[in-house]
Design a protein that fits this description.
mainly alpha; RVT-Znf; Reverse transcriptase zinc-binding domain-containing protein; about 120 residues; about 0% strand
């Protein structure tokens, strides 16, 4: 089992459902954690013939980690959101690492709203 699968297996899935967010957001986070969202690299692995460049920045291949964490556009959005919340944070390399690093950050809070 590689490290990504190990992180997913050990991650607290109940955390997604405890936080007050719309149900569709929880489902989307589950898809992100399993790297099952339909990004270009996922569609290409299913046999579709597509250009592998990121739809937003058009600079690198569109992977899960690039599209949701490291693309200049999403990275800028993350900085805005984190600054509004007063959080100083270094973006990890993988989505699963980001999700597991958030574990416990709002589980003891009275207000469990994240988004």
């Amino acid at each position: 089992m590689n490290q990504s699968n190990h992180q997913i297996a050990n991650w607290s899935w109940k955390q997604i459902w405890r936080i007050k967010v719309p149900h569709k957001v929880s489902i989307f986070v589950c898809l992100l954690a399993k790297e099952a969202t339909l990004t270009v690299d996922n569609l290409m692995s299913r046999g579709m013939k597509l250009c592998s460049r990121c739809f937003l920045c058009k600079k690198t291949a569109e992977t899960f980690n690039h599209l949701f964490l490291h693309c200049p556009y999403t990275s800028h959005l993350w900085r805005i959101i984190l600054n509004l919340k007063g959080i100083a944070w270094t973006m990890p390399g993988k989505i699963t690492t980001a999700l597991s690093s958030w574990e416990g950050t709002c589980s003891h809070a009275k207000d469990r709203t994240v988004f």
